[in-house]
Specification:
- By secondary structure, the chain is mainly alpha-helical.
- It is built from two helices and no strands.
- The protein has one domain.
- Helix content is about 90%, strand content about 0%.
- Helix 1 packs antiparallel against helix 2.
- The relative contact order is 0.17.
Length: about 70
């Protein structure tokens, strides 16, 4: 799960880098679309990492309660 989240972050970063490097060559509409897609990818990555943390915290609480 974490590796898929990192892939999403890498993809978002690549989109943003491309938008920066093409700068004035890109239309504002294209840059806005890239930004929206990057935001969506980062949101998915954040959700994925939150799920991992929630699961880990749940397991940790169960272990602590057994002690």
């Amino acid at each position: 799960m974490t590796s898929s989240a990192l892939k999403l972050v890498d993809e978002a970063a690549a989109l943003l880098r491309k938008g920066i490097s093409t700068g004035s060559d890109s239309s504002e509409k294209a840059r806005l679309e890239a930004r929206k897609k990057a935001h969506t990818l980062l949101s998915k990555a954040s959700t994925s990492l939150s799920d991992v943390l929630d699961g880990s915290a749940s397991i940790l609480r169960k272990v602590i309660n057994k002690i």
